[in-house]
Structure formats: C-alpha cells, structure tokens
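Fold this sequence, please.
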Amino acid sequence: MVGLFGHYFFNLSIAQDTLMIPSSGNGGFKQTCTSIVFDEGGVDGNYLPNSNGYIIFYQTDVEYSLHFLDFELEEFFDEFYVFKGVGIGGELIGKYSGNQLKGQTLNVGDEGVTLQLISDATVERAGVEIQIACNSTLSTNFNIPFSAITVRNGILGIPQNQWKYLQISDGLSGLVLAEYSKMNMPEKIDLNDLLNTTIRPKLVVISYVLNNGDYHFVKLLI
C-alpha cells in the first residue's frame, strides 16, 4: 500500500518491526504501520511493576487500527489507556483492564494514536501484544502536484522531455544512490532494485529539476 502526504509517499507494505511501550515516560513518536507492540516484558515476560509509560503512532492521512493479539492485566489495579491523537492529553478512546481487549480490534481514526500502560507495585500479568495496522485515506496510484511524477507499486515513472536532472539519495546518510541528466534519463526506475537492501522501511529522497528550472523534491519511505 502506498500513501501520499503532500510531497511525501509512504509504502506501507513492509515487514513488521517490534516496539515496546516503556515502563516510564515517552517511548517516542513512531511513523510505522506494520508494528507489533509489547509492554517492556516482551514476548514471554510480564510487564514491570509501577509502570507508567506511553508510545505515540502518527502519520497524516492514515487511519489506524489496533488488533490485540494478547491482553492480560491485573484486573481493576492495572490499566491500559488508548488516546486518539498525539500524546496522553488527547481524546480518551478507552480505559481497559483484565482481559477486556484480548482478540479485539479498535479502529481509532486518522489523527494518530497514543498507548499508555499503568501498573501498581504488585501482581504483574502477561501484558499486551498489539498489531498496529493502518490504511491510507488516499489513492494508491497518483501524481504529485506540479511534477507529473508517478509512483505505482514501487516503480518511479519519469515523464520524458520534462526534467533536466534527477538525483536519488539515502534519506538518512545522504549517500547518493543514483543521478541522471537529461541525456540519460530513464523512463522508469524500480526503487526496490535500486535500494538493494532488506532493511525496511528505507527513506529515500528524490531531487529533480524541471526544464523550466523549478526545483522539487520527494521523500519516500519504502
């Protein structure tokens, strides 16, 4: 699945990664749609006593859903909070305990989601295992405004006779992966082949200059 965010594309069809809700504080701001989330006890352990931590998931134009593969808290005394939006100051979707959410799915809309686990000093259970998923609210095949560039299934389409220069670089290291002038501009580029790595997601930056001298760039997470 691909989503468009202004001048940003995100390919959401990537391998799942594993994240943890911290036992205290903010676990960070995550831009992912294919994660499995645990408490700090991990796959086989229990969550920690006196936990009070949270983690945030957010991407624009994406609707989040949470599927609870496992959910076991000390009933009444330990609680799991789901907030709509970024941070624990957002709209409270629900407060849960015991095994209320095991096997359930929550759809939380398109404003991001924050997950918080709070426990007391005694009696820890297996905790949570949550599959994060999201759907783009935008089309999977489209053009970026003013550029006529297209991305379909990971293939970057190049409009001929419109560009002077194109450069593709690693979005984190800045390493130039490929560059083309008007004389050797291809009609299409398979970005998956160009990256040649199993590490996903991978951020790339495409910078290009049109014939009229206008400069544009696109960031893709594939």
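Residues 142-221 form a domain with the Immunoglobulin-like fold (CATH 2.60.40). Confidence is low (pLDDT under 50) at residues 1-15, 138-149.
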